[in-house]
Amino acid sequence: MTGKSPITQRTARHGSHKLCKFDLSDLEWTNMIPECPTYHPSEHEFEHPLVYLQKIAHEASKYGICKIVSPIAASNPAAFVLMKEKKNFKFETNVQPLRLSKWNEKDIITFSMRGRKYTYHDFEVLANKAFFSRFHSSRDLPSSYVEKEFWHEMAQGEKGTVEYGVNVEGSAFSCDPNDRLGTSKWNLKNFSQLPQSLIRLVDREIPGITDPMLYIGMLFSMFAWHVEDHYLYSINYHHSGANKTWYGVPGYAASQFEKTVLQHVYCNKIITKHGEDGAFKFLAQKTTMFPPNVMLQHDVAVYKAVQKPGEFIITFPRAYHAGFSHVNFANGDWFPLGAAASRRYTHLKMMPLIPYEELLCKEAMLVFKSSRVRSSKNKPEDTTSYQAIMLPFMHLMQSYKTSLLRLNSSRKLHSSSNTTGSQICSLCYRDCYVAYLLCKYCFSHPICLFHDIAPQTCLCGRDYTIFKRNDIFALEEAAKSFQQGKECVDKFSLSSIFSCNINDCIKVPENNPWQREKSVRGTSFLGVASKPKTKVADSTKHSDERNKSTTKHWRNNGLPSVRGAERPGIIYNLRKRKSKLI
Prior knowledge:
CATH superfamily of the largest domain: Cupin
Helix content: 25-40%
Structural class: alpha+beta
CATH topology of the largest domain: Jelly Rolls
CATH architecture of the largest domain: Sandwich
Low-confidence stretches: 1-21, 487-582
Largest sheet: 5 strands, mixed
Distance between the termini: 11 Å
Radius of gyration: 25 Å
CATH class of the largest domain: Mainly Beta
Strand order of the largest sheet: 1-2-10-7-12
C-alpha cells in the first residue's frame, strides 16, 4: 500500500453517519499502531521453513502477523523473470475506486475487470507515471508519509481509481538453478509440498492454496480486510518495488473485530445473517476496507508491518488483515482452528475449499503409523502438533459414532463399504470423509450424518444407504491408540456400529446416545460424547443461487481428494484463490 509503485484496492466512501466514526481529519493515529515483530533467521534456520515458523509461532501469533527478513537474496529480479523467463507474460487488472463506502443498500463495493491485458513493462510505465503525477517525484518516500496520503485520499476521494493486477497465476521466483532463493525451500512454488505441510496431502491444484498467485500493483494498491480460507496460515513474499503496509488483527481478537465491523462499519440492511456470522460472511467477499483506527477506537488489538522487497509476511490462523496476500499453508497445530472453520462454513452453508476432514484423517493415520515404529523414547505424544492432530481426530470419530448410533436406532438404513473419498453434504456443504448417506442408485445428493432431521429417501424415491470408508478398521485402531495414550479405557469397536444391522440395536431414549451405546457395546474408547455444533465461514461471496448451481457442478464433476485416495464422484469448488505476491 505504500511507496513508489503499489496499486490500490477497491473501496468506497462512508456517509456522514459513518465518517464520524471513521474520523480521518487527524491522521496521527497512523503513528499509534504498534509494529508487529520482525525476525532475522540465520541461513541455517532458513533451511527448514516450517520448522522455523513453528519455532516463532508462539510469540508471533499474538500479533496476527509478523515479518521475516530473508538472509538470502534472489539472483534474478522479478522484472527479469516476468519479461525474460516467462515469454509473452501478460495479465489483466481490476479497476478499483479510491474512496470509502457507506456500506448500506445503496453503496456496496464490487470490483470490475478493465478488460485490458498488460505486459510487465507496460504496467510498470503506467505505475511510475501515476506515482510521479501525484508526488512530482520519482524517488522513494517515507512509508509513514505515503500511508497518511493514502487514507487522506480514501476519505476525500470521489472518482479516483487505480488498476491492480490480481490473481495472476504463477510466481516471480526464478527457475534459474543458480538462483539461491529460487532453489530454496522458501520458493513459494514449492512451499505447499514441504514435508511438514498438511497441504501436501491435497492432490489437486488450488491456485493460491497449493500454488502461489502473483499480484502486481501500483501506488495505493491495497487488499481489503479478510481472514484466510479455513483459518489457514498465509505467506507473502515481496519481490520488488516500493514498501507495502499491512495491518493485522491477532486471531484471539477475531470475534471482537467482527463485532466492531458489525456495529461500526456495516448497515444492518446489508447483513443477511445476524451477529458475528453476518459480518464474517460479508467480510468474506474481500471488498471491505476501512481505516484501522476504528479498531483503536474500540480497543481491538491491531498491528502494522511495513514490508520491504526481500521480506516475507506471515499471517496466522484466524488473523484478519489488510494488505497483499499469499500462498496458504498449515502445520499440524492448525487442526483445531481448521475444525472451528469447518463448523462455521457448515453453519453458514458455504462451500469448503479444502477437504478438512480428509486432511485430518490422513494426517492422523500418518502420525499413528509413525508412532508405532518409533522407540518409546521418541514418541510424539507430548508435542504440540501431536496433540493438535490427536484431539480433533478423536472428536471427529466420536461424533461419527454418536451419529451412527442415533441413525441405527431410529431408521432402517442399509450400509455399504465402498467409499474411498470425500463427499459434500447437499444440505450444509460439510465435507464428509468417514461416512455419509447416499443413494446407491443415482449417487446424488449426499447427506452428512450430523442432521437431526434428514430425508430418509433420495429425490429419486429410493432409500439412502450409509456409506463408510473401506479403511474404517484402521481409523478405529488409530483413534483407540490415541485415546489409550491419554487414559486407560475399555475396548470399543467403532466399525461394528457401521456394519451392524439397525434392527440389532437396542432402543434407548433418543436424548441419551451414550447410554444407548453402553447398552449395545459397552464403554466407549472415546469417552464422553458431545454432539458437534456447526458453524462455518468462507472467503468468497456465495448467494443461494450460486450455492445451488455450484453444488450441481460438483455433483457432476467429482470432489477434491487428498493424496493416497481415489477421487470420488463429487468435487470441491476449485474457484481460483485470490491471493497475492508482488
